[in-house]
Amino acid sequence: MYTPKHFSVSDRQELSHFIRNNAFGQLISNHNHRPEASHLPFLLSADGERLTCHLARQNPQLEKLDGQQVLVIFNGPHAYISPRWYQSAGVPTWNYQSVHVYGTARTFNDAERLMTLVDQLSQKYESGAEKPWQPEYSPKLLRAITGVEIEISDIQGKYKLSQNRSTEDRQSVVEALRAEQKSEMADAIQRWEPPIESC
Q1: pLDDT digit string (tens) for 40-92?
Q2: Going by C-beta distance under 8 Å and a sequence separation of 6 or more, which residues neighbour residue 79?
Q3: What does the pLDDT read at residue 198?
Q4: 86: DSSP letter
Q5: What is the sign, positive or negative, of the torsion defined by CA atoms of 38, 43, 49, 55?
Q6: What is the pLDDT of residue 134?
Q7: Can you say how many angstroms the Cα of residue 131 is from the centroid of all Cα atoms in its chain?
Q8: What is the pLDDT of residues 143-183, one digit of tens each?
Q9: Distance between CA atoms of 174 and 171, rounded to whole angstroms?
Q10: Which CATH number among 3.30.450.40, 1.10.8.10, 2.30.110.10, 1.10.10.10 corresponds to the domain 5-191?
């Protein structure tokens, strides 16, 4: 991922936090000499070293996935940024947050391990419900999925949040985004301190 230094994020704790809060990602691998992608919810291990997910067993991406180097992309809020919002000269651009994870994929079909994975995913996404759904599995249902664990070898973070603009321009962008009901991006710009002097 092309990442100018003022948009680069390398702090592993920050990147882990981002992944956990934007955990619906794209698993990209090579299948029959072309890129293949599946859109999936992922779990990041407590130590931040592994990702897990599961795919439908009939998904052709699984055919040659085991042992392959893969890319997982996690995206956060994004928004068009108009130059009319700047106090100084500029060009149209797009602000966004994205994290790329590289690693080796290993597939598994152990029923107990699959049950644990689905339990953890359910607990994560049912936690806010008044009456959370309680998982119930039959062996047939678990046989319909295959688990994937990715041992992470590299993480790249890019937060393109107008860090290369002046304080005045950044404030104007935040105000314009809030006026357009894009508060997630406005909040992200305000939260993330530019790592270099504004220009």
Answers
A1: 999 999 999 999 999 999 999 999 999 999 999 999 999 999 999 998 878 99
A2: 94, 95, 96, 177, 180, 182, 185
A3: 41
A4: -
A5: negative
A6: 76
A7: 28
A8: 999 999 999 999 999 999 999 999 999 999 999 999 999 99
A9: 5
A10: 2.30.110.10
What is the DSSP-derived secondary structure letter of residue 60? Answer: G
DSSP state of 46: T
Residue 184, H or E segment: helix 183-191
* Strand-pair partners of 25: 40
Residue 144 makes CB contacts below 8 A (sequence gap 6+) with 56, 57, 58
Q: Dig out the tokens for 191 from the structure.
A: 């939260």
In angstroms, how far is CA 88 from the centroid of its own chain? 33
pTM for this entry: 0.91
Residue 31: pLDDT above 60? yes
pLDDT confidence of residue 81:
97
Confidence of residue 194 (pLDDT cuts 50, 70, 90): low
What is the distance between the alpha carbons of residues 179 and 114, in angstroms, rounded to a whole number? Answer: 45
Instruction: Tell me the domain boundaries of the chain.
Output: 5-191
| C-alpha atoms less than 13 angstroms from C-alpha of 192 in its C-beta half-sphere | 29
Residue 125: both structure tokens together: 């996404």
Burial of 117 (0-12, 13-18, 19+ CB in 10 A): buried
The Cα–Cα gap between 164 and 162 comes to: 5
